[in-house]
Amino acid sequence: MANEDTPDASPAEKLPESIAIIMDGNGRWAQEHEKPRSEGHREGAESVRAITRECARLGVKELTLYAFSTENWRRPEPEIFLLMELLKEFLIKERAEIMDNDIVFRAVGQLDRLPPEVYQEYEATRDMSARNKGMILRLCLSYGSRQEIFEAAKKMATLAQKDPEAFEALEPDDFRSFLYDPEMRDPDLLIRTSYERRISNFLLWQISYTEIFITKTHWPDFRESQLHNALADYASRERRFGGLIDEEVV
Ligand code: IPE
Ligand code: IPE
Ligand code: MG
Questions:
Q1: Domains of the chain
Q2: Distance (Å) of CA 92 to CA 118, 120, 174, 210
Q3: Claim: this prediction has a pTM higher than 0.85
Q4: Could you tell me which of 239, 210, 235 has the C-alpha nearest to residue 22?
Q5: Least enclosed by CB within 10 Å: which of 43, 79, 152, 250?
Q6: What are the pLDDT digits (tens) for 100-118?
Q7: From atom 13 of ligand 1, which residue's Cα is the shortest distance away?
Q8: What's the CA angle centered on 181, arms 167 and 204, to 5 degrees?
Q9: Phi and psi of 76, rounded to 5°?
Q10: One of 8, 72, 186, 221 is an active-site residue; which one?
Q11: Is 24 annotated as catalytic?
């Protein structure tokens, strides 16, 4: 385990290129602090800022954050409204930081379900950062993995009709080209805060061989040192992808 104040807990060669995070526990954080849930979400937005900055500084190539699921539309209207307001605020306020850190900003999900004024701010931030060269920050918004896979299957069916030869030539890995972001790397490390041991409809196809780190820390308390701990844990793992590490003799 990493020392809490080690700045670069993970050796560079074992730094995950791509990290995905299920940012959970804003409500429980608020409850523990005897505050309204809204305060948990506000404090959670601060963690997004801190973790984004730190991942960019460490040299992570892609950071994918689960910010709002398709199932989260089931929440009470006032909570959804607040989350959309916070999102809009983030998209506007973080532009300078995104540009200063050379970050490419993208969102994936059923974005047409977002309120138009939120979508407009998203487009502005995405377009402004499109030619940056640094880390990709990908926000999963109104995102559901089953919906993503279903939509991908439909796109493939369309290709089968329009261009049967191209369809026949597809390899299993080409499936990613039908997903929301065809350029997305499979995450090396998936972090879930607040200790639920489930995937909650997140990146089902992409995490086939991802290392999973689940922590009791609620998302608003997940900052640099907690990230360093997760990275140190990741660095200690042996990834096998079904094979053997050395040519062991049976
Ligand atoms: C994560 O925190 C934020 C979103 C899902 C939008 P929660 O709001 O799920 O917090 P808990 O799980 O109730 O503690
Ligand atoms: C997962 O958290 C979705 C996000 C973090 C955006 P939830 O709080 O919605 O997940 P469940 O309902 O506990 O599975
Ligand atoms: Mg939750």
A1: 12-144+185-237 (3.40.1180.10)
A2: 10, 10, 35, 32
A3: yes
A4: 210
A5: 250
A6: 999 999 999 999 999 999 9
A7: 27
A8: 85
A9: -60, 145
A10: 72
A11: yes
Give 28 Cα–ligand 2 centroid separation in angstroms: 12
Task: Choose which residue among 21, 22, 24 to substitute to test ligand 1 binding: the one with the highest number of ligand atoms within 8 A of its C-beta.
Answer: 24
Question: How far apart, in Å, do the first and last CA atoms of the chain sit?
Answer: 33
Residue 214, both tokens: 């689940």
Q: Is 72 a catalytic residue?
A: yes
Q: Which residue has the CA at smallest separation from atom 11 of ligand 2?
A: 200
Instruction: From residue 185, give the alpha-carbon distance in Å to each of 116, 173, 245.
Output: 29, 12, 22
Ligand 2 lined by 67 (C-beta under 6 Å):
yes
For residue range 185-237, what is the model confidence (pLDDT) as tens digits? 999 999 999 999 999 999 999 999 999 999 999 999 999 999 999 999 999 99
Q: What is the 194 CA–ligand 3 centroid distance (Å)?
A: 8
What protein residues have CB closer than 5 angstroms to ion ligand 3? 24
Residue identifier of the C-alpha nearest atom 1 of ligand 1: 24
Residue range 63-76: average pLDDT? 98
38 lines ligand 1 (CB under 6 A): no
